[in-house]
Design a protein that fits this description.
This is Down syndrome cell adhesion molecule homolog. InterPro entries: Ig-like_dom, Ig-like_dom_sf, Ig-like_fold, Ig_I-set, Ig_sub, Ig_sub2. It is a single-pass type I membrane protein. Its main location: membrane. By secondary structure, the protein is mostly beta strands. It folds into four domains: about 120 residues, Immunoglobulins (Immunoglobulin-like); about 90 residues, Immunoglobulins (Immunoglobulin-like, Sandwich); about 90 residues, Immunoglobulins (Immunoglobulin-like, Sandwich); about 100 residues, Sandwich (Immunoglobulin-like). The chain is about 0% helix and about 55% strand. The protein contains no helices and 39 strands. The strands form eleven sheets. Strands 3, 5, 8, 9 and 10 form a five-stranded mixed β-sheet that branches. Strands 12-20-19-15-16 form a five-stranded mixed β-sheet, with no helix packed on it.
């Protein structure tokens, strides 16, 4: 008895973006097993889609889901159901595989199949699960499937590149194969799983490729002023080649109108600007991609502009008891701070800070101008508007208020 069920789902690798739909094929075959031996019911699906499956369950018809973690049943990452120490009652049920989509929660079920249990007989090993190629990202876990039936229970031995596998605490023989923790580039190679008992032998051979994502050396933009030149390198310190490096400004490709030059040489990409303007302000991101992953590093470029007057204060008259505005405004980046100082009378100016908000009679407006709500005779004198933003020298300009 053999059948199949096709499960459609969306491959949304890129942070929730819905791309081209993918399909997986679930097939469960009728299996024969011997009493007290091991058996495997396999449901195969593409490894490219496996990360999108939040769960894979083997169900018995008209019964609850099998609790694999606490019983003789084990589900592998490839969807195979292993039954350890097969019992006669295991042949009383139909089995089928159910998958659940990680993002949508949608479920699909395969066809059903029976497990035929018979009395144990001596037999050579028969491969139940194997692999031809596995890819894993560096520092991640990977399992190389190798499981066989046979009586007596077969023994296992692993070879890497035609040599016995050297002891390593990261390597562990599990029930279903070879488990490698924290995979390293040196783990790449051809693996052979030898299986044997007194009645014969078999083997599984496959390739493991450990792929290493890029690592970007952190960089930061120093303090720049308008009109200066900029050169910032983005260096990929490690990761599999080839590596492709691109830049973005504020999350988008850098506009050609900004006159930014990008030079790519091997594992380095440099950003150059020959004449900084305020238009160059923003967050710049270096993105490095290879077959393993895409990584990025971001830094903010702030083009600093020294302060200059937009409106300079000028001598003017004030009417006693009336309101008056002493105009002063400036621009720059960061936004300049404007402070007012006062020197009473018409003599040689000796400026002192103005006590602002004393009864709200005198205050500095948003644009930097000084507002006097009720002019008094004692307000007559020199006033100094001082502008600063820690870029270059401060600028200042004085004026005289004549109270009438």
């Amino acid at each position: 008895m053999k059948g199949s069920c096709v499960c459609d789902f969306i491959d949304a690798k890129a942070a929730g973006r819905a791309d081209e739909g993918k399909r997986i094929q679930l097939t469960v075959d009728e299996v024969k097993a011997c009493f007290s031996s091991h058996s495997s019911l396999s449901s195969y699906f593409s490894l490219l889609t496996a990360p999108l499956l939040s769960s894979v369950n083997m169900l018995e018809v008209a019964t609850p889901s099998i609790v694999c973690e606490l019983s003789r049943f084990l589900i592998t990452s490839t969807g195979a159901l292993y039954i350890l120490d097969v019992q006669m009652e295991d042949g009383l049920y139909n089995y089928r595989c159910m998958t659940r989509h990680r993002y949508t929660g949608e479920t699909r079920q395969s066809n059903s199949a029976r497990l035929i249990v018979s009395d144990p007989t001596n037999s050579a090993p028969h491969i139940l699960d194997s692999f031809e190629r596995r890819e894993v990202m560096g520092s991640h876990r990977v399992e190389l499937p190798c499981k066989a039936s046979g009586h007596p229970a077969p023994k296992y031995r692993w070879l890497k590149d035609n040599r016995p596998l050297e002891p390593d605490p990261r390597f562990r023989q599990s029930v279903t194969g070879l488990l490698i923790e924290r995979a390293q580039p040196g783990d790449t190679g051809t693996y052979v799983c030898e299986v044997w008992n007194g009645y014969g032998n078999a083997e599984v051979a496959g390739m493991l490729l450990v792929i290493v994502p890029p690592t970007i050396h952190p960089f930061e933009f120093p303090r720049f002023s308008i009109g200066q030149r900029v050169f910032i390198p983005c260096v990929v310190m490690s990761g599999d080649q080839p590596v492709f490096i691109t830049w973005q400004k504020d999350g988008r490709p850098i506009p050609a109108s900004l006159g930014v030059t990008i030079d790519n040489i091997d594992f380095t990409s440099s950003l150059r600007v020959s004449n900084l303007t305020l238009m160059h302000n923003g967050n710049y991101t270096c993105i490095a991609r290879n077959q393993a992953a895409a990584v990025e590093h971001q830094s903010q470029l702030i083009v600093r502009v020294p302060p200059k007057f937009v409106v300079q204060p000028k001598d003017q008259d004030g009417i006693y008891g009336k309101a008056v505005i002493l105009n002063c405004s400036a621009e720059g980046y960061p936004v300049p701070t404007i402070q007012w100082e006062y020197s009473k009378g018409a003599g040689v100016p000796q400026f002192r800070s103005i006590a602002l908000n004393s009864g709200f009679r005198i205050e500095v407006l948003v644009n930097g101008s000084l507002f006097i709500k009720h002019v008094l005779e004692e307000d007559s004198g020199f006033y100094l508007c001082r502008v600063s933003n820690d870029v270059g020298a401060d600028v200042s300009k004085s004026m005289y208020l004549n109270v009438k």
